[in-house]
């Protein structure tokens, strides 16, 4: 079946894509899907991501969602009633599944994974792949500007997982860096946590510098 999503609403599309990428993380990453030869799961995850976003963010009815994504009302209902814990259990015990089961992801399993992914995204835990890409883009952007401290910070936080909930790892990674003549660790201790992405970290550091009358 070919699914054609008809929407010009970028907010729906972008949030559904963030849920989709987080779902891939929960499934073990694209490498794991390829390893198990379960790339056929991806369309199910994509559909489930749209379904969950339309219900949770836009309070759409089952009929409205069915019309939007081009699935039956019964399939929409199965996705919305999916149990995230049951879906995770199935994924964690994937080695016990038959080869045929690994090739086919049932809609309720896709729905469960998408539900959990949506919850994590809303809590600030976007896909690590997305976060790392944001860090790389930010690093490239600040390298073109008069903000060498921002470039050094982004360079040294490569690979960190988000959200960053406390200062410990940041202090360790930035212990040899000074920002505008101030030890980075003295600034890091005073910023607000959790830090949800690289841009938020730079913003918090800049605000601390401004409070000190430096920036």
Summary of the model, kept short:
With 215 residues, the chain is mostly helical.
Folded structure, characterized:
With 215 residues, the protein is an all-alpha fold. It has 13 helices and 2 strands. The protein has helices at 10-26, 29-35, 42-58, 62-69, 73-80, 84-92, 99-103, 107-122, 128-143, 148-156, 168-173, 184-188, 198-211; strands spanning 178-179, 182-183. Helix 1 packs across helix 8 (107-122), helix 4 packs across helix 5 and helix 9 packs antiparallel against helix 10 (148-156). It starts with 9 loop residues before the first helix and ends with a helix. 30% of the residues are buried. The model has no long low-confidence stretch (mean pLDDT 84).
Secondary-structure blueprint:
Blueprint (H helix, E strand, L loop, with lengths): L9 H17 L2 H7 L6 H17 L3 H8 L3 H8 L3 H9 L6 H5 L3 H16 L5 H16 L4 H9 L11 H6 L4 E2 L2 E2 H5 L9 H14 L4
Antiparallel strand pairs: 1-2
Protein name: Bacterio-opsin activator
Question: Which short descriptors sum up this protein?
Answer:
two-stranded antiparallel ribbon; 215 residues; 13 helices; 2% strand; mainly alpha; single chain; 2 strands
Total helices: the number is: 13
Ends: how far apart? Answer: 56 Å
Largest sheet: 2 strands, antiparallel
> Helicity, in percent?
55-70%
Can you tell me the residue ranges where pLDDT is under 50 for at least 5 consecutive residues? none
Organism: Caminibacter pacificus
InterPro entries: CHP03879_regulat_dom_put
Protein name: Bacterio-opsin activator
């Amino acid at each position: 079946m070919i699914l054609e999503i008809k929407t010009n609403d970028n907010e729906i599309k972008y949030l559904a894509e963030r849920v989709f990428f987080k779902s891939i993380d929960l499934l073990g990453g694209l490498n794991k899907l390829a390893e198990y030869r379960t790339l056929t799961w991806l369309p199910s995850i994509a559909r489930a991501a749209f379904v969950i976003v339309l219900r949770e963010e836009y309070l759409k009815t089952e009929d409205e969602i069915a019309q939007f994504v081009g699935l039956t009302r019964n399939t929409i209902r199965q996705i919305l009633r999916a149990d995230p814990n049951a879906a995770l259990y199935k994924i964690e015990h994937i080695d016990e599944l038959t080869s045929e089961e690994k090739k086919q992801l049932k809609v309720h399993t896709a729905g469960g994974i998408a539900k959990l992914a949506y919850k994590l995204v809303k809590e600030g835990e976007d896909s690590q792949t997305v976060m790392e890409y944001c860090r790389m883009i930010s690093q490239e952007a600040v390298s073109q500007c008069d903000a060498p401290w921002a470039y050094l910070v982004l360079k040294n936080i490569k690979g960190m997982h988000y959200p960053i909930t406390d200062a410990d790892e940041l202090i360790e990674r930035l212990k040899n860096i000074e920002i505008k003549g101030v030890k980075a660790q003295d600034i890091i201790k005073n910023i607000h946590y959790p830090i949800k992405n690289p841009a938020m970290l730079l913003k918090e550091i800049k605000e601390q510098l401004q409070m000190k009358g430096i920036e």
